[in-house]
Design a protein that fits this description.
The chain contains 22 helices and eleven strands. The chain is α+β, with helices and mostly antiparallel strands. The longest helix has 19 residues.
Length: 482
């Protein structure tokens, strides 16, 4: 990725958090790389090289700065909107954690050659897939060293290392000190966990519309599975058969969310972190999104009133897909009532004495594929659609993984009787993180842009939305929020 040196220099001089993680500065005279918000005195321009990712810096031989801690920067957005293949590859790297993928296996999952994949990564991220995976693993381990009291062996395996020795060598090579010394020397105050939990910081790039995303999730929270209030978001989680809880709060002063976890195995920490990041769309670059969408006057006022719009993701794509089918032809409140009945009838009861509002895990696809879904008060056609959706997911015919192409997944969903384009677009928007998904037939979107008695048609809305590409999902969130 080509970075304009003059623009990067001006951004570094401004030390604006909006540029944090967008690029990194490698100081050739010291061998250190920094975030653009680093508080140290700026080196001379001729002594600085700029890189699109932390992995590119480390491949070039630079070490992380101990002042600004570049391993704690928000995710690099260099690939956003530029290469669908790189986007899918990065999602796969995140999803398979804690077991790292080889480049050949990654390219096979994506249906392309390993050499072509390396070229795409070099072009868009300035580093190889192996370097991205290695850097991500080391940086995540450093986060666990600083934020938790986990034993070093648990940190090593939770971050995806094959052995404690490999973990020690990688940490020493990257940070210049062994893990135990880094933990003792850490000046960061650990976030306060709740009883039986651990807590982790999840940084984002401001602005961040916390109130907006919380209000959206609160209206659609599944009773018994999710609980949303002014203090944050809580839910029951189930990963590989194990049940736990997450609690997400906001720390606006430090531009980060605080994730509190209660899970049975530390091996699932990385997966929980990535799912939470997607749920709150922490990888978004709000400055770029607002700059592009503000060209439309109707969106400009909304973006100025509520800066930092995000597209809420999904903890479990299947859960969201079922919730979307339940929401067809009924109000948001009606869909919430139906989802509560579904959970009480077919979900897995849990012991939740500490959090009374959370009582069930969402029913698995295998359960709903054989369930009498119509018994909760659904029309038979919609109940059949849910059973067929569950059957295809349980049988592997329909996958919501990062390797899947969003358009192909939407097409498979539309093939299920009772599931139309609105549902497929909504699922792509939230479960597949497709920034350009757009349910143009949505009544709320049509009303938001209609004036007086003249109502837009879905076709007219689609035509107008062409100017919003590749951020139509964010435009939809702006309009729904209004």
């Amino acid at each position: 990725m080509d970075l304009d040196r003059k623009r990067c220099r001006r951004a570094s001089e401004a030390r604006d958090r909006r540029f944090d993680g967008v690029f990194f500065c490698g100081v050739v005279t010291t061998g250190i790389y920094c975030r653009p918000i680093c508080p140290v005195s700026l080196p001379k321009p001729q002594n600085v090289d700029y890189y699109a990712s932390a992995a590119a810096c480390e491949e070039a031989g630079f070490r992380p700065c101990r002042r600004c801690r570049p391993e704690t920067a928000p995710g690099t957005p260099a690939w956003c909107g530029s290469s669908a293949t790189v986007t899918r590859a990065l999602r796969l790297i995140e999803e398979v954690s804690p077991v790292p993928m080889k480049v050949e296996e990654l390219s096979d999952r994506l249906g392309m050659g390993s050499r072509q994949l390396r070229r795409l990564f070099a072009r868009h991220l300035g580093a190889s897939p192996l370097a991205i995976t290695r850097t991500r693993r080391v940086h995540f381990a450093r986060r666990l060293i600083d934020d938790t009291a986990l034993p070093m062996s648990d940190v090593a395996f939770a971050a995806g290392f094959n052995s404690v020795r490999q973990f020690n060598d990688s940490i020493r090579q990257t940070f210049g000190e062994p893990p135990t010394v880094l933990r003792k020397a850490s000046q960061r105050q650990r976030p306060e966990p709740m009883a039986g939990q651990m807590a982790l910081r999840l940084p984002y790039r401001p602005p961040f519309d916390w109130d907006g995303i919380l209000a959206f999730l609160e209206m659609r929270a599944i009773p018994g599975v999710e609980a949303v209030g002014p203090e944050g978001y809580r839910r029951v989680i189930e990963i590989d058969g194990g049940v736990g809880f997450i609690d997400v709060g906001h720390d606006p002063e430090h531009a980060q969310l605080i994730l509190r976890l209660r899970i049975s195995s530390s091996m699932e920490i990385a997966r929980c972190v990535e799912r939470t990041r997607r749920l709150f769309d922490l990888g978004a670059n709000p400055q770029q999104i607002a700059s592009d969408l503000s060209r439309d006057p109707a969106l400009r006022a909304r973006l100025e009133a509520r800066p930092g719009v995000r597209v809420p993701g999904a903890w479990d794509p299947f859960e969201l897909a079922v919730r979307a089918v339940l929401g067809q032809q009924v109000s948001v409140r009606g869909a919430t009532t139906l989802s509560g009945r579904l959970v009480r009838s077919f979900g897995k009861p849990i012991d939740s004495a500490a959090i009374p509002l959370l009582t069930h895990a969402f029913p698995r696809p295998e359960v709903l594929a054989e369930a009498d879904v119509a018994s909760i008060g659904l029309p038979e056609t919609r109940a059949t659609a849910i059973r067929e959706l569950a059957r295809r997911v349980a049988g592997g015919e329909l996958e919501f993984s990062g390797a899947g192409n969003a358009e192909a997944v939407m097409q498979r969903m539309r093939e299920i009787p009772g599931i139309g384009d609105w549902t497929a677009q909504y699922v792509a928007m939230r479960a597949l993180a497709d920034s350009d998904a757009f349910p143009s037939a949505d009544l709320g979107l049509i009303r938001a842009l209609s004036h007086g008695k003249q109502r837009l048609t879905p076709m007219a809305l689609r035509k107008r939305a062409e100017a919003w590409r590749p951020w139509r999902a964010y435009a939809a969130m702006c309009l729904w929020g209004s």
